[in-house]
Each structure stands twice: as C-alpha cells, then as structure tokens.
Amino acid sequence: MDPAVELLRHPDPNESDGNDPRKRDSLILVIALDDGPLDTDSIISYYPPLLRMCRMLRAKKPEAAIRIITDDDPVIVFLADAYMREHEQLMDMLVGFVHAGGMLVCADKFAITINSVELKPFFSSFGLPWDMGACYRTAYVVNPACSHTPLSCHELTEKTNVKALLLENVAEGDKLYVPKEGARIQSVILSAMGQLGPVLENRSLTPTAFAKVGLGYVMYSGDVQGHEHATHMAILAACTKMHKFLGAAYDRQQ
Hints:
The protein is 27% helix and 23% strand. The protein is α/β, with parallel strands linked by helices.
C-alpha cells in the first residue's frame, strides 16, 4: 500500500478489518495530513461502528486524498485536521464531492488547526455563511428547531457540556446543539476562586452544525478536546441516519 495511505483497523481484534471483502463496496476516507497518529481516544466512540460497515483509509498526503476521492468513490470524508485548506486542488475536489452527494465531516483536530482568518473562507467554499464565534466551555441542549428530522432528540444526547470552537451565522435549522437557557461560561480559574462565570449572552452560537449542500452534507464539530460522548454520538448519528447507504447497513446491525 502507498505509504501515504493507512488502512484503519477495528480496535477489537475479533472484528473483521478493512480487508474484509464484504466491505469492498463502501469506503470512508479520513484526511489527516498531520504526520502524527490519529487521536484514538477522541475517535474510538464512532469509528468502530463505522468500521463494521466500511473500509476506512487515512490519507496522509493531499495527493493520496485526491487519488482516493477520484478512484475509490468514498461515501464519507472525514477532515481530521484543517491542513488541507492550503491545497487548492484538494479543496476543489471536496466541494465537488459534497455537491455530488457526499458527506463531509469536519471533526477531531479540525477545530484546533484552523484559525479565525481561514474558517469563514473554508465554509464559504461550500456556500455556507458559517463564521468563528468564540471558544469556551458551557452547557448545551439539543436544538428543538433542528430541521434535519432523522437527527432527532432520540438519536442525540439530550444535553452536553463541552469546550468548543463555536460557530455563528448558522441557520437555526442547521444547529444540532444550542446553549442552554441561563448557561454560564465556565472557567477553571474562576471555579478555583469559587466564582461563577458570566451568563452566556449570545445564544445564537453552536458547537455542532449540519447543513445540506447540493446533494450532500457538511458537518462541523467544534469540540476542541474531542473526548465528549455527545460529540461522538452526534457524528455517528449523522453518518448513519443521514447517509442512506450507511443508514440501512447500520440498522441491520442493531
């Protein structure tokens, strides 16, 4: 195999891996251009269920990612970091992939590897007005106004408390989580002093967004620590409930 491509394996040795011929018809591509290993602590909750249904390949170089998108027709592309933004050809491929019906998930280290100058142009490439809002920890609840019906309260963790790089200018129906009424900005320093943080004034921000783009979807998770259960369940729900092929495969496993 190309050294710029890594086959991701299920952490349970008793599970079949990506070489299982039953998985040849479905592929998930993880683009992680950071030379380091993937943060398995942050992905363990949602990658294994997907590995039972699909082959998963990690591309470590933009050229490898372009080749896989072109030749292997992945059903979902994960952006595990934001370093691909520097590669115009790969960005063009991702935009075309989504408009043609693919699902793009910006998660893992994406939120901590993109800056305030780059985030808005990145999402503008997909026709989305999303912009960087703020970064802090507070309490959130499932957005009752979310317009993506399969991503209902039954599929998402009802409430969460997460430190996240928040988005603004997200359509109300595209927010999976919204700040809890009366939520306070949480600070380790203030907590150590026995003080409460200020009440969050801007309740239009969201840590998790999901939007229809062309025939496909774009998802963003701003969880900067990557260990929050609700984050993982939101990503898994998006992949298995909004993608018609994976949804059917996932339901058969339950």
